[in-house]
Amino acid sequence: MEYFLQNNFILESSVAEKLYFDYAAPQPIIDYHSHLSPHILACNQPFENMTKLWLQDDHYKWRAMRAFGVEELFITGEVDPREKFRKWAEVVPYTIRSPLFHWTHMELKNPFGIKELLNPYTADRIYNQTLEQLQSEDFKPRKILQNFNVEMQGTTDDPIDSLMDHQQLRQEESGIKVLPSFRPDQVFNINQGDGYRNYIQQLEQVSYTKISNFESLIAALKKRIDYFHLAGCVSSDHSFPSMPVPHFTIEEADQIFQQVMNGDDSQAEKVHTSFTFYALTELCKLYYDKGWVQQFHLGALRDGNINKAKIAGSNQGYDSIGDYAQATQLSFFLSHMEGEAQLAKTIIYNLNPSDNALFAAMIGNFQGDGIKGKIQLGSAWWFLDHLDGMTQHLNELSNIGLLSTFIGMTTDSRSFVSYSRHDYFRRLLCNLLANDIRKGYLPHDIPFIGSVIKDICYQNIKNYFNL
Predict the structure, then answer these.
(1) Which of residues 304 and 88 earns the better pLDDT score?
(2) SS3 state of residue 308
(3) pLDDT tier at 365 (50, 70, 90 boundaries)?
(4) Element (DSSP H or E) covering residue 181
(5) Which of 35, 131, 337, 377 gets the highest tally of CB atoms within 10 A of its CB?
(6) What is the 8-class DSSP label of residue 303?
(7) Which CATH number fits domain 14-47+140-464: 3.40.50.1100, 3.20.20.140, 3.90.1200.10, 3.40.630.30?
(8) DSSP secondary structure string, 83-131?
(9) Strands 235-240 and 293-298, sheet pairing
(10) Rounded CA gap, 426 and 408, in Å?
């Protein structure tokens, strides 16, 4: 059987191939948002096996395995790594039409050079081959990034993180910029009782600031933002169901925050959203002053399986798309920051495909200030980073905004071989524009269309983050 993943994968014409191979493929990768471990990069120790590299933190694969009926023991349990890999190999043939089928074989082909399908019959052979390869210098974490031509890798980091790994990587001049992103989600969880108070105590320690009220909380966070900035940080990141709006005054929110810090949680839930709004807007002013990019991931329904979340904890692959109201809250928040003359460059990621046009239209309300694409519709994210989702995203952005100012793909991944998603996106982008050329919707001006593709894949991103 002929191997399906040929060089012209997704590229349906010679025009698409020309655009991809001459303009898209050579561009370095700036992966501005991911969940890769900076500690793994700093240590630069080989991965023990493919299970560690591939399956340990990949919620996409976990969900597919659960859907196929694989016992949880072989997904997140303490089982021999080879057995876990075999179970994944059983599932892979039945992921057809899922991006997982494509990504799995793209990641075997690059960087491992494996051009056979993963299934129960090939599982042990592929596991053994990769086991040997992973022990070589060429497959250490930093080498993997170099193989994919990664120029900058963004990580996601809590305000209390030491950033020692980032500092080590900078001192060692590894050849790849590894930059932190400021992710203060836990700061807003005023309704989490003792867990929240414990977190604030840690924030006090790293900021050398006694936190007793709202003002001192922001002062502590400002110190951490200064610290992150010195470590090379150029962006913040946040995840909300929808943008918070205030229902109480800042004085009321501050009073209840003080009550929470004194152990009284009775009013915390009702003021949670208002507290989040006030804390977030103060942080966004600080981002603006630093010249950072702020990112908002909106629309996820977290821990949707309440029973499993109680057993396994959060972030175990039981999240899904939420159907939250977005327009009014998002418009209010962006208007507020613009009214303060402190609206930073902003990337807004949408998770519900029915809201793509809404988000694409919303960003057009807040552009300007001499910055191309100041407010961005973030790349197709999580449940949308497949061929249909990316196509819908690009079409909505093209129809309502300016595709030419888009800052392209990011992995949003925990896997060190997930850069195939950049290749996936670039092939799709080139094929989409090539089809428009073939239909006569665009001029047959390969140099110009190619320059737009180069911008989307690389130059727009470099300029946007001031790299």
Answers:
(1) 88
(2) helix
(3) very high
(4) strand 181-182
(5) 377
(6) T
(7) 3.20.20.140
(8) HHHHHHHHHGGGGTTSHHHHHHHHHHHTTT---S--STTTHHHHHHHHH
(9) parallel
(10) 9
pLDDT level of residue 2 (50, 70, 90 thresholds): low
The pLDDT confidence band at residue 81, using thresholds 50, 70 and 90, is very high
What are the residues whose beta carbons fall under 8 Å from the beta carbon of 328, sequence distance 6 or more? 245
Q: Please give the Cα distance from 73 to 51 (Å, whole number).
A: 14
**CB atoms < 10 A from the CB of 162, how many?**
11
As a whole number of angstroms, the distance between CA 58 and CA 74 comes to 13
How many CB atoms sit inside 10 A of residue 376's CB?
24
Report the C-alpha gap between 20 and 26 in whole angstroms: 9
Domain 48-139 is classified in which CATH homologous superfamily?
Answer: uronate isomerase, domain 2, chain A (1.10.2020.10)
Task: Report the half-sphere exposure of 304 (CA within 13 A, side-chain side).
Answer: 11
142 with 173: CB under 8 angstroms?
A: no
d(CA 381, CA 386): 9
Mean pLDDT rounded to a whole number for the chain: 96
What would the two tokens of residue 183 be? 């992710």
One-letter amino acid identity for 86? R
- How far apart CA 239 and CA 322 sit, in angstroms, is 13
Beta-carbon contacts of residue 316 (< 8 Å; ≥ 6 apart): 59, 62, 76, 308, 309
The domains of the chain are located at 14-47+140-464, 48-139
Helices (H), 173-249: 194-207, 214-230
State residue 211's pLDDT score.
98
* pLDDT given for residue 310 in this prediction: 82
| CA neighbours closer than 13 Å in the CB half-sphere of residue 414 | 14
Global pTM reads 0.97
pLDDT confidence band for 96 (50 / 70 / 90): very high
In tens, the pLDDT along 377-403 reads 999 999 999 999 999 999 999 999 999
